Amino acid sequence: MAAGLIFLQWQKTEKALADNEIFITPTAVIPNPAPPKKEAPAQIKGIYLTAYSAGNSKKLEKIIDLIKKTELNAAVIDIKDYSGKVLYDSQLELVKKLKLKNNRIGDATALIKKLHDNEIYVIARLTVFQDPELAKYRPEWAFKNKNGKIWRDKLGLAWVDAGNKNIWRYNLALAKEATALGFDEINFDYVRFPSDGRIRDINFKLEGKKKYEIMKDFFQYLNQEMAESNVKTSLDFFGLTMEQRDDMNIGQRLVDAVDEVDYISPMMYPSHYYSGHLGFKNPADHPKEVIANGIKKGLPLFDGKRAKFRPWLQAFNLGAKYDGEKIRAQIDEVEKQPNAGWLLWNAANRYTEAGLKKES
Fold it and tell me: Which of 222, 223, 217 is nearest to 251 (CA)?
């Protein structure tokens, strides 16, 4: 074996695609040694970064400086986002064949090492079933409308069929490749059916199953297939899953996931709760009450289970100005629970020290 290289040997098995495509090359080159995994902090306190931000040296330095100055200790970085583009230098055969790659991160291993050198836990965010690129090049895997055309949500984005095992294998292959590159955790987002647009027009092909049964099978699949990987796993859920026990017609129920991954991150942004929630005309103005209510109703489902509660919190202006006071109000409610971590979301990656404690 060549010095400085390790060859990831993946065999073609009965799990390979029906059309004979293999998701990863038999000799996909992974830098050796990959950065050793950083042990997960007891309380993960992270921020979200796009691949553009992570791959921009000046922006990255500012983010590292912010993390070092404050209580933050983790970064969540896109490796495949809403566009469906793969944002690192993937060597998967399917990615290369369909030209799905847009390497905005650059040298992922060097990035991870830099963050590790600064004591930062590194999470790879991977969107799953919202995937316009895969739908474009594999239309037979996309959700269709009743006329047989690719269905699109209110933003014009296509989704792939959540019950299609080829899509499960594709995203698993990306997760394992990211693991080999050195990411400490793989965060699976958009692990659900579509929630907006003309939902009634979708031909779901459920074949007698409930949506939540399909998603439960997918969560179990991730658990089984990632079990031997030296990496943590997490799922992003709608915030209302903390309060509702049905699947809200998107297939997400906490009860189906709490034993399958290490963390579940409900997106508990107060701005995303409906007017009238808890009697508030504008729930965004009441972050303390919204978060407290969700925790009270949802946390019992985590008792004695594998997954830890680690919500996404609002760090963006929508419905109200989210200054330090509102950001801190959310964090304080979460931190009333022993070792409960949290993640801050700002799509533009505009973060300041507002609402954050100084590093002691």
Answer: 217
